[in-house]
Amino acid sequence: MGNIKTHKDLQVYQAAFKAATQIHQISMFFPPEEKYSLTDQVRRSSRSVCANIGEAFRKRRYPKSFIVKLSDSEAEAAETQIWLDFALEFGYIDNEKHALLYDKYDHILSQLVIMINSPEKWCI
User: What is the pLDDT of residue 22?
Assistant: First the structure.
């Protein structure tokens, strides 16, 4: 793990945090009628990716718990992609923003899967 002292040092966390902040920024322009549905849901799921990575990092002593929290993060990342699909379909974001964010979450998902498949590299 090298110089990784906290969850904030993980590249996957940094990528997820940046993506969540970008989602927050673009969702500020969603219509008001989406406030309690799409806007809240995409913000919640994107932030939850980060929160679950942080929780997983703190559960490194217990490989099964570590994997469960990373799996939760993986599910939230996939959910975020679905909300992005809805935002595109409804015309709230353009193809370019959708493709950029969707690709970021594909990368986040691949990093999470690598960690899930090799917990011994991360657990203490």
Answer: 98
Please state the rounded mean pLDDT for residues 67-71. 98
What is the model's pTM?
Answer: 0.95
Mean pLDDT of 62-68: 96
- The fold adopted by the segment(s) 7-121 is de novo design (two linked rop proteins) (1.20.1440)
What value does the mean pLDDT take over residues 90-104? 98
Sequence ranges of the domains in the chain:
7-121
CA distances 7 to 37, 43, 104, Å, are 29, 20, 19
